[in-house]
Amino acid sequence: MARRKVVDWAVICVLGAVWVVLCARAIDDGLRTQRGYIQLRFSSAVRGNYPTIVQYPNLGFEIGDRIEALDGEDLRGATALHVYDRLTRLARANGSVEVRATRDRVPFTLRIGLTPRPLWWVAFPVLAFGLLVGVTLLLRAPKWPLARLTFVALWAWDAAHFSLDWLEGPRGTVLELSMCVALLIPGTVLLVWILQGFTASARPVPRWQRMLALGVGVAIGVNLVGRALVPMRLDGNLAAMIVLPNAFILLTMLGALARSYRLSNALERRQIRWVVLGYAVATVGVLISGIVPPLLGQPLFLRTPSRILAGVAGAGVPAGILISVIGYRWLDIDRLISAAASYALVGITGLGAALALIPRVTSAAAPALGIDPAFAQWLLTMTLVGAAVPAALYLRPRLDRQIFAERHRRTSGLDQLLDEVRRCSGADELWELASARLHALLDPVSLVVYAREGDAFGVRFARGPSEPKRYAADSLLVHALERRGRPLAADSRELDPFDRAALETLGVALINPIGTREALLGFACLGSKRSGDIYTREETAQLAAIASRCAEVLQPAVEPPPEPAIFRRDGDLWTLASSGKEVRLRDMRGLHYLAMLLREPRREFAPLEMVRSASGLAPTRAEPRDPELHVTSRLGDASPTLDAQARAEYRSRVTALEAELADAERCSDLGRIERASAEREVLLAELESSARGRGAPSGSDSERARIAVTKAIKFALDRIADAHPELGAHLAATIRRGYVCAYVPDPRVSADWQV
Fold first, then answer.
1. Which of 28, 221, 485, 741 has the fewest CB atoms within 10 Å, measured from its CB?
2. What is the pTM of this model?
């Protein structure tokens, strides 16, 4: 491995230095001449005659014109390559060239120069990206057997473009064409070679198919050298010389990809789809930039975008290869392909409509509307572009169902499972349903679902060849899942090496935690898919959503704590807040008593104790300092009014009324609260009267304190009910008054007051 790295670095340094020299030369040419070229295409002379113009008439020339001399140099019998070479050299040296030509036996003379490329630099970042891709593959994917060939192929393509823009044909000097052919042929042959054996399943490649790769090199040579040396006839071999070699190259590449795809497994096919997408982007970009502007009459507003598109689209090939080797997990290629297919179909349809309708509509509507035809053409083009986006969005899911039916079945099934989990009534039903459905939808080699059982995680569902083990709640695997909180690949560096090795032994590819932020309730270990494919980002996100929904069923969401209830004195005012509403009342004695009861819910207070506490006295037998009380000597006793059985029935009814009041308060039924409170007050009064008759002196300190406290509390409750009806109803139903006072809220409701 060390020797291989040394060789790789040597290759990078040597070829990288050559790349830098060629790039610097091309940049210098671009700064001086904007990489200018001859905007004419010539045919070599036939039988001692003169070269003729066969394509791209411009600069005052027409197709069929004979080129007889350049700056006085006779061109009889010259090849097209000689014309390109002399024109390019003379134009670079002198700025322009005098051309003597003949049209229909009528001689004429014109001066022409090189046609600059305004955006000549657009392709350079793409070429640098291609070289960077080759270096990345060489260093980051050394185990891929085609990494070195890919680096050399991409380097050769870059270097060929620096020498000559071969898409424009052999329109340069002899040296430039020779370098381009010498670099482009091996680069393209290597790329075809790589595509033929791109995956391990597609290797070895039969010898006869390797010969097709060499045939691609021959086709490129025929395409470039033939156009430079062989005479081309307008009605004969011109189209064949250009179209047939390019068609052979394209068909050979598609055949190589098709063979690799047919022999590959699901994961390798995913990688090849990235390569196909890269080639499609490059091809479509070049075709659009080369076809659309000429068909639309070369409008000015399309020149710059078309050049940029042609340059940027070239990055599709190296980008597709890079992602297919080291980044195929980043994005779901199936979604990109369906999106690209939908936009391509809409684009082709829109292009056809534009070519058929826009010229006619603009020629008819522009004069009638009084607007410039070019502006009308631009407006209609933008309208079609705007309509293309919603049309593609409408078409995409339908194409998705047709092209990737299996993927659509999985994602639809996972979405349906997400809804079914919500309807599960218990943990047993949840584990069984979710586990069985996941196993059926994803078809993993193994699936083990763990659930928390005290201080460990036990197995609740298991399918697979290996025997699963229990995991302790304090294991590093559990800690990693609690810290991550989302699906984790089994080869993740966040796992302990021991746990990672154990998971690899079980054949686990993905771990999906099930829990909340506070606690991990379980997790699912999914093995590799039987198809060999990966778990896509979309599937991983769906699994995370299902796990979150399972956690909601296993541990119902805790209701948010209620807003704090406030019953606090602020100087001469009292602040009362409950149920989101806040009021202020002036100070009164009853509010002091209520604050005392609210401070300690369910504790029973004697009225005399409350009076002494509110007056700031210790609980002794001394007279209270309450100005509302004037305690005198005992005045006498009352006789009993109820027997023991009646008192028991009254107490039973009071208990029932208190339960009814609590229920009415929860339902906010003010009518029931009022009726129950009134009946309860009557019964309590009877019980108090009976208690006085059994020995409580009506004129004692306790009796006078009871009367004062009861009146003060009632007055305060009335004021509260006026300002805050909900709070008043609650306190009226939960405050006990009489010989014993207490705040008795519903035990099922939190009674947390800030007093």
1. 28
2. 0.63
